[in-house]
Each structure stands twice: as C-alpha cells, then as structure tokens.
Here is the input.
Amino acid sequence: MKTRSLGHYDLIVMGAGSAGASAAIAAARSGSNVLVIDRLPFVGGTSTGVLDTFYGFYTPGEKAKKIVGGIPDDVVSGLAKFGSMIERANTYGAGTGITYNPEHLKVVWEALLKKAGAKILLHALLQEVKVSDGRVSELTLATRAGLCNVTGDYFIDATGDADLSHYAGFGYEKAGDIAPAQTLTTTFKMVNVDMKERKTINKDKLHELMQIATDEGYELPRREGSDHITPVPNTTATVMTRLDSTRKDKDGNTESVLDDPFFLTESEIAGRVQAAEYARFLVDKVPGYESAAIYGFSTMIGVRETRRVYGDYRVQKDDVLTAKQFDDQVALCGAPIEDHHSGDGTNWIYLPEGSAVGIPLRSLIVKDSVNTMVIGRCFSASHDAHASIRSMGQCMAMGVAAGITSSIALKKKIEIRNTDFASVKSELISTGAVLEVPK
Here is the structure.
C-alpha cells in the first residue's frame, strides 16, 4: 500500500499527553520544528481523557513545597482563565492537587501548543518505526487518510505504553514480568450531588459503607476508592473501580492488556460495568448522593503501568525513599509510592516530609538509541519508583526537560546523551523549572 509523506521535522513527539504536550511546547519555544502526534481526538491523554487532577506540584505534608514550575504553571494559568481550577488536599495525604475541568484543559493544551508553534496531528496510530544502529529516522502512522510516514532528526517516546520503543526494538521491562503490575481504573462523574450532605462522612466511613455494601451483595472489588469535589457545582469525580492489567494465557504465561487486543476490549467493557455498580452504591448508600446520577465515564480506561523503557539510568525504590539527589537531575518528585495492586487495597510508602527525589536526565535517554528520549509513565524506573514518579506534575516536568534537551542536541547536531548538562540546566531554570527542593 502506498504511503503518504507528512514531511520532515526536527523533533517528533509520539504521544500528546501531559508529558508529550509539555515536551512539544518546550522544544517549539526553543526554536525547533516540532510535530506532536496522538491516537486520541484531543491533546492531554490521561489528563483530559481519564482524570481531572494534577498531582506532583507540591510535596506532601503540613509544610508543602512547590517543586514543579515553568511550563506546567502556564497550563495551570490557562485553566485559571476559565475559572475552572481548585486546589484541594489529596484523600490519602499525597500532597495538594489541582483539580480542573478536563474539557477546558483540552483547549488549554492545544492553545499552548499552537502558540508555541508546534504542529499537532491527532487520530494517528503508530504502526512501524524505522531504525538503524539505534537511530530512529521514520515513523509509519495509520490515519483516517490511510498510511502516512514522517521523518525526523530526534524523537521522544511519550506514548505511555512505550509504543515507539517497542516497535523500534529498544529494551524495556513489561509490567508484571518482575513485579506485579498496577491495576486499571475506569473513572466516572456524578451530578446533582448534595455536597453539604456528602461532607458529613469522611473517607473511613465511605470505605466502611463500601464494605457493608459488598457484604450485602454489591460487586465492589475495591473498598478503598475515593470521590472528590470538582470545579463544576454539585458534581463529583471518582477513582473507585479496579481491574487487573495482566492475566495468564492458555500456556500459563503472563500477558498484559497490550498483548491481546481482546483483553483490553474486555477491560474497557468491564470497567464501565463496575463504574455503573459503584454509582448504584453511591446513590443507595452514601449521604448526598440520594438524587445524584452518573454523568459520564472516562473516555478510556485508566492504565497505570505497561512497559518501562531501559534508559541510561533506572530510578530505583531506594532512590525514591531516600530522596536521592542527582548531578543531572531535571525534575523533582515528592509523591509517595502509590501501588494500586491487585486486590481491594493500595500500598502507600511516603518519603520523608518536605523532601523530594531527583529525576535524572539519564533516566529519560533511551539506552538503545542515540536520538530518542522517553518520558511519562514509560520512563526508565523500577516498578516501585515508577509508582511514585508517574504523577502528572512529574510527567510535565520530564517533558519540558526532554524537549529542551532534544532542541540543544539538534542545534549542536549531536547524540542525545552527549548533550552538555550545564546547558540543559541553564535553559530549564530560565523556563521556571524547579531543580532543587526549596528551603
């Protein structure tokens, strides 16, 4: 089949979620000719299709410290202009969150990209990656106009599932092969909620009601789910459902939702069934929900972990828990390890209050490539470290670092890993990025 050429770009960012969009904005502002591609019909990925809250901007604890800034602040400022943003405490003490209207965020992301000069391509699925000696040169995409190819000098894998790295043959760890994979969640919203009545019970009482309802026959696999206020009056958003992201195939081998297309399809369907059951529970059993109704499911099921690419450095659990600092750190994370394992609970392990682990540039450089970086939830980290650093605030900060690094490499015409870190650091700081924990 004949393919159509979409041209050549300095930098191609595959994936336009929080990480990819931030990378494209940063690179375009640095003067690069950037194309950012996504399979969805809008920019933002999980931030607009599944969730409604940015975590990671602040460290947890009574004395919160702001550890993400610059371009991510521009995103928040754009939301504030719509009047669709509130700051609220995390239900589990994971730090202050910034809750927004996802529909407004779609407009904000796209406006920032266009203003920066980045080219956006939506409704495009990655099919093939051309690579030689670790150098990616061309992508083949499936679009509504047929198969298309596009060439570039540098690439960023921001697909979440490491699709670019997978098709290129670069090394990665598949979730579930070494440590248990995190679960899937279909989120949903409820409208016509009496917020005054809802506030009469705390999260412990909500969980108690979930357990009682389960004993009565309600099918609620997770009894530690949460609901929260939103900028839309009398509307709540939930994180309640839970489905396994791996299973055993007929030969006893572990397969993920990426290995069998029917597995992901079945999960999407089952997630909506679960969400409807949780909504029934809320209306029947929880104060404030007596006259409420389900308003909408997430666009797609929320996926926490699938593939994690091997980079020049792999962030480890001990790095996170000791709040390790790195000579080449380009971002910070203070979020606890938040492991949504199979079962009805979630494991939380917190960093020392007021501290944050550094995210080294090396963890964003694909080990097997000379011109490819990886950001977002498929970056180079162990299962436990990933469970902390995957927050959207950190995904945005990683994206900015990757966009700037790629632009510097482009100007010097050098391999990504040969980029002078002092130059990267200087440009990051000039954007407002936070690289050291505030005193």
User: Anything to note?
Assistant: The radius of gyration is 21 Å.
